[in-house]
Amino acid sequence: MRWMIxxxxxxxxxxxxxxxxxxxxxxxxxxxxxxAKKLVIGxxxxxxxxxxxxxxxxxxxxxxxxxxxxxxxxxxxxxxAQQIQALTSFIAQKVDAIVLAPVVxxxxxAVLQQAKEANIPVILVDRGIKVSDDSLYTTLIASDFVxxxxxxxxxxxxxxxxxxxxxxxxGTTGAAPAIDRKKGFEEILQKYPDMKIIKSQSADFTRAxxxxxxxxxxxxxxxxxQAVYAHNDDMALGAIQALEEAGMNPGKDVTLISVDGVKxxxxxxxxxxxxxxxxxxxLMGPLVFDTINKVRGGEKVPKFIQNKDQLFEQTNAAxxxxxxxx
Length: 326
Ligand code: GZL
Description:
Layout: H1 2-21, E1 40-45, H2 51-66, E2 70-75, H3 80-92, E3 97-100, H4 109-117, E4 122-125, E5 139-142, H5 145-159, E6 164-170, H6 176-189, E7 195-202, H7 207-221, E8 227-230, H8 233-245, E9 255-260, H9 263-270, E10 276-279, H10 285-296, E11 304-306, E12 311-313, H11 314-320
Parallel strand pairs: 1-2, 1-3, 3-4, 4-5, 5-11, 6-7, 6-8, 8-9, 9-10
Antiparallel strand pairs: 10-12
Helix pairs in contact: 2-10, 3-4, 5-6, 7-8, 9-11
The protein binds beta-D-galactofuranose.
Residues 49-50, 52-53, 126-127, 142-143, 177, 205, 232, 234, 259-260, 280 line the site of beta-D-galactofuranose.
C-alpha cells in the first residue's frame, strides 16, 4: 500500500516538475485561445420569385448557419436598385466578402468598383453580368444557360420529329438565364426549319405570369399551340394550368419542356403534364463558402465555376422524384 502512495507522490512531483519546466503563467492570466473572428458575408439575393430561388436561398443561408458565418441577407424583390443599395451597405459594413445573385446582366460597374476599392471580393452566384473589367468580380458559380437552351432544343426536336409551332415563355427581361436559354434554344432550332417559335414573351420566371401569358397565347392561337418552351418550371406549371383550364391536354396534345428541375416539375412529369425539364442545380451553399475560403486563403479560383446540368423526362421522373433535394 505504502509503495502505491510513493508512486503517486513521485507522479505528482513529476507533473508539477514538468509544469515547472514551463514558463509559469502569472496565476489567473492563462491566455484563452483567441476566439476566431466570425466571418461576415453580405448576400444580395434576387428575390423569391420561384421555387428554384427559394431552394438557392435555403442552401446558402443554411450552409452559412452550419459554418457559423454571420450572413447579412438582403432580398431585393427583383429590383436591381435594391441590390445596389444592399451592396453599398455591405461595403460600408466592411464585410469579408459579398455574394451577389444579379437580377440582370448590366448596371453593376459603379457599385462593384466601390467593392474593389474596399478590397472586398465579390462572388457571383447563378447569374452572370456584363462588365468592361472582369476584375470587378472574383468568380461566377452558375450553370451554363446557353447549354441548357441547347439541351432543351435538342430534346424537343427529337420529341416532335423536327416539326412544331413553339410558344416560348421567357424569364426576366435582361436576366442572363433568360437571354442565354433563348440563345441556346434558337441555336438548335437553326438545324430544324420546321420548328418555329410562333410567339415569345417574358413571364418573369413566375408561375402567375406564366399562366397569364399562356392564357393570352391560347386566346389568340388556341389549337395552333403544339409545344411550349418555358425558361423555368414555375412558368411551365402556370402554362399547364392555363392549358387545362382551356380544355387542352398539356403533356399530350401540347409538348412542354422547361428548366430548373424543381419538385413541382417532377410531380407534373409523373402526372404526364410536363414532358421534360433541364435541371439547373440551386444547391450552391457548400461550393459558395468553400470558394470564399479559397479566395481568402489567397488561392486563385477560376473565373467561372460551372454547375453541371442533367435533363429529366417522364420516363425517369418517377424513379428519381423521391431523391430530389429541392
Ligand atoms: C437560374 C436562375 C433562374 C431560375 C429561375 O440560375 O437565375 O432564376 O431558372 C429563377 O427559376 O427565378
